[in-house]
Amino acid sequence: PSAVTPRPLLRHRMGMTDQAVVPVVKDIVLVGGGHSHVHVLKSFGMKPLPGVRLTLISRDVSTPYSGMLPGYIAGHYEFDDCHIDLHPLARFAGATLIHDAVTSIDTKSKTIQCANHPDITYDIVSIDVGITPASDVSGVKEFTTPVKPIDSFSQRWHRVLSKIESSSKEFRLVVVGGGAGGVELCLAMQYRLLKAMEDRNIDKKLLIVSLITRGGILPTHNWGVRRIFRRVFKERGVDVVEESTVTEVKQGSLQTEKGESIPFDECIWCTQAAGASWLKGTGLPTDSAGCLVIDDKLVSTGDPCVFAAGDCASNSVHPRPKAGVFAVRQGPPLAENLRRHALGQDLLPFVPQTAFLGLISTGDKNAILSRSQFFLEGTFLWMWKDSIDRKWMEKYTVLPEMATHAKPPPEVAVVAGEKALSTIAALPMRCGGCGSKVGPTILSRVIERLHVEERKEVLIGLKDPDDAAVVKLPEGTVAVQTVDFFRSFINDPYVFGQVAANHALSDIHAMGAEALSALALATVPFGLEEKVEEDLYHIMAGALKILNESKCALVGGHTTEGPELSLGFAVTGAAMPGDILRKEGLEPGQQIILTKPLGTGALFAADMRSKAKGRWIAEALASMTQTNYRAAVILRKYGSAACTDVTGFGLLGHLVEMTKASQVRAQILLQELPVFEGFEECVKQGIFSSLQPQNLRLRRALLNLEEVAEEPLYPVLFDPQTAGGLLAAVPKEVVGKCVEELHQAGYKRASIIGEVGGRTHTDSAVDTIEIIGQPARAQ
């Protein structure tokens, strides 16, 4: 059974509202999760535009606020203090969040190419992807740590921090770049490292910090600000090398044009950056740094359907330096002009400010104010900056409760033309029965685009015009059949297709069979023909990624129109009769293995309430799209004779099925259960899957219920899983090697979670499972 329920905004995502069916008329796609785009998301969440489907494609699910990054590096902020979680923000906006990296945009076909998704179509696209390191200096890519792109610098910094903290020798940290970013990060890193060394009783003199800049420090700020920072650097013991151009980077040293060789153990590269390399491949106009050239309406000068904002854009009408303040200010006019473009209205020009207030931190909780020729220094300025930054973050992290959207006016449809209006007019007259099927033209186009695994056992398959598939079983085998179907619980149809296929295949794998063929049953929301085609293609392309990986041939299926996206499969597998893994094969003394973490039920229940962090959901989906195919092979190799997949009934429910069928007891070590990050936090908030209460009825199987009921991880025993892992038992003497091979195969969280106990000689499930909780702490 499915472990999660669909979230309400899926109806909005697929063109539905609570009061009326509104097909998707236009697709607005946001590429990148920059400062401007987070405002666009908030704006569309506060005031949806019916008929418009909003999609965000982002390489990361958490986007950093650049103004707080130095404070994070210095240790003044936690990760969540200065990162905007794009997952709940996208949900609030009714937007699809696609966690992927864009590699190109074809403006002629209006498609976006991604690293791990099929092409995504758009009517309007906006680009806010920041900038990347720009340097023609030899050795920079190989031997330095770049600050740009900023959204992934925190990960790189923690690797640097770990390396420095584990060193007991002299460590030379060199920062290249004398702008505000380089200056702030240099002092922040020194502050954090000295604090860490003090905590570990390491001699602070072992840390040597240098800053190197081609010109003078802070060239865009006034003389007073530069004077203050030169004093601060001197007081902190930072060696500042000005008017020195780096010409080459070697492993462990910088070479300058003056012939100097400056040694380093870690070099942070914080110089001028450039647009992402793929931007030039779009054919859109770019400046000398590879940034997209836009006009005063934030529109590309080469394509009226392409918008851009933030550091990746260069305003040809009102040139400004690269600074976070300009990206923040571009958010409101960008949101307004995206709306206007969708509605066919005139766009509004935007004139950015010419001067801005700068508050530059000094590592400790102190800051310097810079505006034109005015400057000021003080701790109170850091407190002011901190207050400003936190208030800005709150706008995009503390979101109002989502109200039901009123019946939408057909403004977008009117602009889109007669085709859209006729589509909406036909909605009340949509037929049921076979009249609700997706049209043959759409189906044939989608099938032509799909790559289907071919098997010799398939005599008549997907590409044939016959009424049914014909599949021959390999000689000596028997058919192993299963069926699964559920509604979508995520807004990315490609990933949903993977999860649905994986969930359906899992029963076949758990029984030790080889998947031969699958029949699909898909429901797609009614809409404009091209939108329906893309939705159907994406879910089936995702499904085929998993089916093909498991060498399972898609041989046919049925598609129909419905209120929300749904997908299921009837899968046929084959196995030799003696090789089938069943639930009744547990033997006393065997070790119990679980191949994947638990917790998807609570996590996606929290996600429905916008209470789940994006990184929690990303980790869960990565597991849910990992097939059990290889795990089943490995478990079989090490002598497993009993196996099942952990799905809707939760760990305890499926274990009870095994112990009851095998007439044995079992002991589970609660502290050994692999659990997804965020599960315990969901439990603390009282958030559980809607299926949890039914699963709780199985607690009668627990031998020591009263003893373990208060354990923090007790609820995970009943948490329903979608596309969960395999639960199996192997002989004790080989369990270590089995788990090691599972780890090597990519099941990194596979764990030994317990042991099979003695015989019960009864098929009763009562008092058959003992849970060993956390050991009591010494007082």
Describe it:
With 779 residues, the chain is an alpha/beta fold. The chain contains 25 helices and 37 strands. The strands form 11 sheets. Strands 33-35-32-36-34-37 form a 6-stranded mixed β-sheet, with helices on both faces. Strands 5-2-1-9-21 form a 5-stranded parallel β-sheet, covered by helices on one side. A 5-stranded parallel β-sheet has the order 11-18-12-13-14. Helix 16 (493-510) packs parallel to helix 17. The chain starts with 8 loop residues before the first helix and ends in a 7-residue tail after the last strand. The model is unreliable at 1-20 (pLDDT under 50).
State the separation between the terminal residues, measured CA to CA: 44 Å
Envelope shape: globular
Note the main sheet.
6 strands, mixed
Query: What is the percentage of strand-forming residues?
Result: 15-25%
Tags for this model:
33% helix, 6-stranded mixed β-sheet, globular, 779 residues, alpha/beta, 25 helices
Please specify the SSE layout and strand pairing:
Layout: H1 9-13, E1 26-31, H2 35-46, E2 52-58, E3 62-64, H3 69-74, H4 79-82, E4 83-85, H5 86-93, E5 96-99, E6 102-106, E7 111-114, E8 120-121, E9 124-127, E10 132-133, H6 140-143, E11 145-146, H7 153-165, E12 171-176, H8 180-199, E13 207-212, H9 223-236, E14 239-241, E15 246-250, E16 253-256, E17 261-263, E18 266-269, E19 273-274, H10 277-280, E20 292-294, E21 306-308, E22 313-315, H11 324-342, E23 358-362, E24 364-371, E25 374-378, H12 379-397, H13 411-416, H14 418-425, H15 440-449, E26 458-460, E27 470-471, E28 478-487, H16 493-510, E29 514-525, H17 529-549, E30 553-562, E31 566-575, E32 591-594, H18 600-608, H19 614-624, H20 629-637, E33 642-645, H21 650-662, E34 664-669, H22 679-684, H23 692-696, H24 705-708, E35 726-730, H25 735-744, E36 751-759, E37 769-772
Parallel strand pairs: 1-2, 1-9, 2-5, 9-21, 11-18, 12-13, 12-18, 13-14, 20-22, 29-30, 34-37
Antiparallel strand pairs: 3-4, 6-7, 7-8, 10-19, 15-16, 16-17, 23-24, 24-25, 26-27, 28-31, 29-31, 32-35, 32-36, 33-35, 34-36
